[in-house]
Amino acid sequence: MAIHLLIDGYNLLHQIPELSLLMQEDPEAARQALLSKLRTYQKIKRHKITVVFDAWGREEPRTESNQKGIRVIFTAHGEIADDFIKRVAAKERERVVVISSDRAIRSFVENHGALSMSSRDFLERLELALYQEMKGEIWDSPYLPSTKRLPKKVRQRLAKLAKI
Question: How are beta strands 48-53 and 115-117 bridged, if at all?
Fold first, then answer.
Protein backbone atom coordinates (compact mmCIF):
# COMPACT_ATOMS: atom_id res chain seq x y z
CA MET A 1 0.00 0.00 0.00
CA ALA A 2 1.35 3.42 -0.97
CA ILE A 3 2.01 5.90 1.78
CA HIS A 4 0.26 9.27 1.60
CA LEU A 5 2.60 12.07 2.67
CA LEU A 6 0.73 15.19 3.81
CA ILE A 7 3.30 17.98 3.91
CA ASP A 8 3.16 21.35 5.64
CA GLY A 9 4.64 23.19 2.66
CA TYR A 10 6.09 26.35 4.18
CA ASN A 11 7.32 24.42 7.21
CA LEU A 12 9.38 22.11 4.98
CA LEU A 13 10.45 24.90 2.64
CA HIS A 14 11.96 26.87 5.53
CA GLN A 15 14.07 23.84 6.54
CA ILE A 16 16.03 24.20 3.28
CA PRO A 17 18.33 27.23 3.69
CA GLU A 18 18.59 28.17 0.00
CA LEU A 19 14.81 27.96 -0.44
CA SER A 20 14.20 29.93 2.73
CA LEU A 21 16.37 32.74 1.32
CA LEU A 22 14.70 32.50 -2.08
CA MET A 23 11.31 32.74 -0.35
CA GLN A 24 12.15 36.31 0.70
CA GLU A 25 12.84 37.35 -2.91
CA ASP A 26 10.52 35.17 -5.00
CA PRO A 27 8.00 33.02 -3.10
CA GLU A 28 6.67 31.35 -6.25
CA ALA A 29 10.17 30.29 -7.34
CA ALA A 30 10.83 28.89 -3.84
CA ARG A 31 7.60 26.88 -3.90
CA GLN A 32 8.37 25.54 -7.39
CA ALA A 33 11.90 24.53 -6.33
CA LEU A 34 10.44 22.62 -3.37
CA LEU A 35 7.88 20.91 -5.61
CA SER A 36 10.66 19.97 -8.03
CA LYS A 37 12.57 18.20 -5.24
CA LEU A 38 9.39 16.45 -4.14
CA ARG A 39 8.61 15.30 -7.71
CA THR A 40 12.02 13.68 -7.97
CA TYR A 41 11.52 12.06 -4.57
CA GLN A 42 8.09 10.82 -5.65
CA LYS A 43 9.56 9.19 -8.77
CA ILE A 44 11.99 7.29 -6.54
CA LYS A 45 9.69 6.30 -3.67
CA ARG A 46 6.28 6.23 -5.41
CA HIS A 47 4.43 7.77 -2.45
CA LYS A 48 1.30 9.86 -2.87
CA ILE A 49 2.23 13.45 -1.92
CA THR A 50 0.01 16.36 -0.94
CA VAL A 51 1.61 19.71 -0.12
CA VAL A 52 -0.44 22.29 1.76
CA PHE A 53 0.45 26.00 1.73
CA ASP A 54 -1.19 28.79 3.73
CA ALA A 55 -3.09 31.30 1.59
CA TRP A 56 -1.05 34.19 3.03
CA GLY A 57 -3.66 36.90 2.71
CA ARG A 58 -5.11 35.77 -0.61
CA GLU A 59 -8.76 36.68 -0.93
CA GLU A 60 -9.54 33.53 -2.94
CA PRO A 61 -11.25 30.28 -1.99
CA ARG A 62 -9.14 27.18 -1.45
CA THR A 63 -7.38 26.08 -4.61
CA GLU A 64 -6.13 22.64 -5.53
CA SER A 65 -3.96 21.63 -8.44
CA ASN A 66 -2.05 18.60 -9.57
CA GLN A 67 1.49 19.53 -10.51
CA LYS A 68 3.05 16.54 -12.23
CA GLY A 69 1.63 14.04 -9.76
CA ILE A 70 1.83 16.14 -6.60
CA ARG A 71 -1.39 17.54 -5.20
CA VAL A 72 -0.83 21.18 -4.22
CA ILE A 73 -3.35 22.96 -2.00
CA PHE A 74 -3.51 26.63 -1.07
CA THR A 75 -5.89 27.10 1.84
CA ALA A 76 -8.80 29.50 1.60
CA HIS A 77 -8.73 33.03 2.95
CA GLY A 78 -8.94 32.80 6.74
CA GLU A 79 -7.95 29.12 6.86
CA ILE A 80 -4.47 28.09 7.91
CA ALA A 81 -2.64 25.05 6.58
CA ASP A 82 -2.46 23.60 10.10
CA ASP A 83 -6.26 23.29 10.33
CA PHE A 84 -6.51 21.70 6.88
CA ILE A 85 -3.76 19.19 7.71
CA LYS A 86 -5.41 18.27 11.00
CA ARG A 87 -8.77 17.74 9.30
CA VAL A 88 -7.33 15.48 6.58
CA ALA A 89 -5.17 13.52 9.03
CA ALA A 90 -8.12 12.90 11.37
CA LYS A 91 -10.08 11.57 8.39
CA GLU A 92 -7.34 9.41 6.83
CA ARG A 93 -5.83 8.27 10.13
CA GLU A 94 -3.27 5.45 9.61
CA ARG A 95 -3.20 5.94 5.83
CA VAL A 96 -1.33 9.26 6.13
CA VAL A 97 2.04 10.46 7.39
CA VAL A 98 2.12 14.16 8.24
CA ILE A 99 5.38 16.03 7.63
CA SER A 100 5.63 19.08 9.89
CA SER A 101 7.83 20.37 12.66
CA ASP A 102 4.86 22.02 14.36
CA ARG A 103 4.48 20.11 17.63
CA ALA A 104 0.79 20.95 17.96
CA ILE A 105 0.04 19.45 14.55
CA ARG A 106 2.15 16.37 15.20
CA SER A 107 0.55 15.75 18.58
CA PHE A 108 -2.96 16.19 17.17
CA VAL A 109 -2.49 13.84 14.22
CA GLU A 110 -0.80 11.16 16.31
CA ASN A 111 -3.68 11.31 18.80
CA HIS A 112 -6.00 10.68 15.84
CA GLY A 113 -4.13 7.61 14.59
CA ALA A 114 -1.93 9.15 11.90
CA LEU A 115 1.86 9.10 11.86
CA SER A 116 4.01 12.20 11.81
CA MET A 117 7.60 13.10 11.10
CA SER A 118 9.45 16.34 11.59
CA SER A 119 10.31 18.34 8.48
CA ARG A 120 14.00 18.05 9.32
CA ASP A 121 13.84 14.24 9.56
CA PHE A 122 11.92 14.03 6.29
CA LEU A 123 14.41 16.35 4.60
CA GLU A 124 17.25 13.99 5.61
CA ARG A 125 15.40 11.08 4.02
CA LEU A 126 14.56 13.09 0.92
CA GLU A 127 18.19 14.11 0.44
CA LEU A 128 19.39 10.54 1.01
CA ALA A 129 16.93 9.23 -1.62
CA LEU A 130 18.03 11.92 -4.10
CA TYR A 131 21.69 11.13 -3.47
CA GLN A 132 21.15 7.39 -3.90
CA GLU A 133 19.26 8.01 -7.15
CA MET A 134 22.03 10.26 -8.44
CA LYS A 135 24.67 7.63 -7.62
CA GLY A 136 22.56 4.78 -8.93
CA GLU A 137 22.91 2.94 -5.63
CA ILE A 138 20.30 1.62 -3.25
CA TRP A 139 21.42 1.16 0.33
CA ASP A 140 19.69 -0.50 3.20
CA SER A 141 17.73 2.10 5.10
CA PRO A 142 19.65 3.50 8.07
CA TYR A 143 16.24 4.13 9.64
CA LEU A 144 15.22 0.52 10.13
CA PRO A 145 14.58 -0.35 13.76
CA SER A 146 16.79 -2.72 15.67
CA THR A 147 15.85 -6.37 15.82
CA LYS A 148 14.77 -6.12 19.46
CA ARG A 149 11.30 -7.50 20.05
CA LEU A 150 8.94 -4.57 20.18
CA PRO A 151 5.15 -4.51 20.39
CA LYS A 152 3.49 -5.16 17.03
CA LYS A 153 2.04 -1.64 16.68
CA VAL A 154 5.45 -0.09 17.33
CA ARG A 155 7.11 -2.41 14.79
CA GLN A 156 4.46 -1.54 12.20
CA ARG A 157 4.89 2.17 12.82
CA LEU A 158 8.67 1.97 12.54
CA ALA A 159 8.47 -0.14 9.38
CA LYS A 160 6.15 2.42 7.77
CA LEU A 161 8.40 5.33 8.69
CA ALA A 162 11.43 3.44 7.36
CA LYS A 163 9.80 3.39 3.91
CA ILE A 164 9.80 7.18 3.69
Answer: unpaired
As a whole number of angstroms, the distance between CA 97 and CA 114 comes to 6
Task: Look at the alpha carbons of 13, 17, 18, 22 in this order and tell me if their dihedral is positive or negative.
Answer: positive
In sequence order, the β-bridge partners of residue 67 are 70
For residues 3 and 139, the model is more confident at 3
Q: What is the DSSP letter of 109?
A: H
- Fill in the amino acid letter for 90: A
Nearest Cα to Cα of residue 99 among 117, 80, 75 = 117
Using an 8 Å Cβ cutoff, are 115 and 97 in contact? yes
* 81 vs 58: CA distance, rounded Å: 13
The answer, yes or no, to whether residue 135 has pLDDT greater than 90, is no
Residue ranges of domains in the chain: 4-119
Q: How far is 123 from 129, CA to CA, in rounded Å? A: 10
pTM for the model: 0.81
Q: Residue 49: helix, strand or coil by DSSP?
A: strand
- CATH, domain 4-119, list 3.40.50, 1.10.3860, 1.10.287, 3.30.420: 3.40.50
